[in-house]
Amino acid sequence: MALGRGLGELLGEVEIAYENGNSKDTLEKIGTIVDIETELIKSNPNQPRKIFDEDKLKELSDSIIEHGLLQPIVVIQNSDTSFTLISGERRLRAHKLAKIDKIKSIVLDIDEFKLRELALIENIQRDDLNIIELAYSYAQLINDHNITHDELSKKVFKSRTSITNTLRLLQLSSYVQQLLANSKISAGHAKIMLGLDEHQQKLVADSVVGQKLSVRETEKLVKQIKEPSTKKVQSNKKNKNYDFKPLNNVLKTLKENDLKVKAEKDYFKIEITSQEDIEKISNYFRNTL
């Protein structure tokens, strides 16, 4: 199923109608604005955003107490008396923090599948969504709607390259993803760790946090981990230099028979250029044994 009308378009129409005096005809086409008890509103289960700044929520709550809610939240009504939130998670949380029983809401008439789509697109278009939440939102839209990166790019107004690079971050371990979500490391640091195993990722991530490594310094560290230690291999290799003096007579006799013989370090070599050479070697060992 292709993605349909975006939440931004719907909310844009709502805001125009609301600012123009809540035109009844316009609002009936879009949704109804009502005061709903906060306890009847359920959070959207498809909400990808999990982390909220408590200080900013308190600031918003104080502002609502003093000035009221300037922009309604958006909900859909369930089969019972409850509602499911589409847009306005922070505003709803701030209302509850202020202990205000009711919140001004726009009730839209959309189906369950559309709800998932709108919630995800609405969050993708926000600047304060952390990059891991954004990556999961991309993945959910792609999987639910069976669309390509190019198709998603056109729907959310992001470049295909940006979407692909963001999705690659989901290949990282949960440990690194958590650090990235909490802004302990940057996306630049995280991308360098792609291709490392889980243990190596943790080692690099802890080094970035503990030593405050730059992206360039992190690149050097990852390069060291990936490259085999040639110095160690060389140091473990023993030099084999044997003493060939006990074979002096053998060498002398073979050379006197016009054979090319070489003995040095760890090998003894007799060069054979003809069948006659083989006969000479055979005769030598037959006579000496």
Structure write-up:
The relative contact order is 0.08. The chain is rod-shaped and about 115 Å long. Helix 6 (131-145) crosses helix 8 and helix 11 runs antiparallel to helix 12 (215-226). The strands form two sheets. A five-stranded mixed sheet has the order 1-5-3-4-2. The chain is an alpha/beta fold and 289 residues long. It folds into three domains: 7-134, Conserved hypothetical protein from pyrococcus furiosus pfu- 392566-001, ParB domain (Alpha-Beta Complex), CATH 3.90.1530; 172-231, no CATH class; 245-282, no CATH class. The N and C termini lie far apart (89 Å). The chain has helices at residues 7-19, 24-30, 54-67, 89-97, 112-124, 131-145, 149-156, 160-168, 174-181, 187-192, 198-211, 215-226, 230-236, 248-256, 275-288; strands spanning 32-37, 41-42, 73-77, 83-87, 102-108, 260-264, 267-271. It is built from 15 helices and seven strands. Strand 3 and strand 4 (83-87) form a beta hairpin.
Describe the structure concisely.
The protein has 15 helices and seven strands.
Number of separate domains: 3
Main β-sheet, in a few words?
5 strands, mixed
Shape: rod-shaped
The overall average pLDDT, rounded, is: 79
Strand order of the largest sheet: 1-5-3-4-2
The radius of gyration over CA amounts to 37 Å
Parts with pLDDT < 50 across at least 5 consecutive residues: 1-30
What is the number of strand segments? Answer: 7
Overall SS class: alpha/beta
CATH architecture of the largest domain: Alpha-Beta Complex
The SSE order reads HHEEHEEHEHHHHHHHHHHEEH
CATH class of the largest domain: Alpha Beta
Tell me the CATH topology of the largest domain: Conserved hypothetical protein from pyrococcus furiosus pfu- 392566-001, ParB domain
- Kindly report how far apart the N and C termini lie: 89 Å
Bin the strand percentage. 5-15%
Q: CATH superfamily of the largest domain, please? A: Conserved hypothetical protein from pyrococcus furiosus pfu- 392566-001, ParB domain
User: Treating each run of at least 4 consecutive H or I residues as one helix, how many helices?
Assistant: 15
The protein's oligomeric status is: single chain
Question: What is the percent of helical residues?
Answer: 40-55%
